[in-house]
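User: Teach me something about this protein's shape.
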Amino acid sequence: METSQSSMRPDGMELLQLYHQNPSIELRNQLVKLHTGLVRKMAHKFSHQCNEPYEDLEQIGYFGLIRAIERFDPSQGYAFSSFAVPYIRGEMLHFLRDRSTLLKIPRR
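Assistant: First, the predicted structure itself:
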């Protein structure tokens, strides 16, 4: 009787619930590896809109992903990807805003 790999490993929501109950660096790293696609997709999107390298945007996106993992509450019933994308995008936008070379003049 064979068991598939997916039935032996907990899925993303189970890992998020475990992390919410007992935070650990190992679980957080496992969740980051599981959700790297979100960061890569956002970094790819932003790399075509600005002059920053893809690798820099990807690294900044991981900060947003880690923040989203730490703040996510699985009992709310939301999908993690819907929760994490604004954090990832926000970190990238903050990075781009801070690195921009444009002179911003106040409105007043």
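Now, about its shape. The first helix runs from residue 5 to 8. Residues 1-8 have pLDDT under 50 and may be disordered. If you'd like, I can walk through any region in more detail.
User: That's plenty for now, thanks!
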